[in-house]
Amino acid sequence: MAHVVKSDETSYSKERFLGDIQSCVAQLKGSQITEEDRVIVTVENSYEFLIAFFALVEIGCSIALVDCMADAREINEIALDSESRLCISDRPLLLSDPIRTLLVSEIVRDGGRNSARELSFSAWSSRSPVI
């Protein structure tokens, strides 16, 4: 079985990876996120980040990646300036209305088991689907 994402302890198959993306797409669409929305993502490099990012790409949102070390004030300024509707984060943030914050652990079924420094990527075979 080919793996697309590996860590020291966990490997994710293409099927699992694509399934997790589809599950996240459903969660986001259930939260009324559409292709017209602008979304901020401020999450450490992790499996959850990959899933959330590719789910937003599939929906067709405009995505603003913000340094995960940025404080809430800076994220809020960027969100207001970009007219973002949603912020996906790996920590709770209090942002100005109407910006909602979703924790990445709430929309990705992996639930945060992998740290950013553990992940690496396997090479995609030529038969791999394009995401």
From TrEMBL:
- What organism is this sequence from? Brevibacillus thermoruber
Q: What is this protein called?
A: AMP-binding protein
Q: Where is the AMP-dependent synthetase/ligase domain?
A: 22-93
Tell me the InterPro entries matching this sequence. AMP-dep_synth/lig_dom, ANL_N_sf
> Pfam families in the record, alphabetically?
AMP-binding
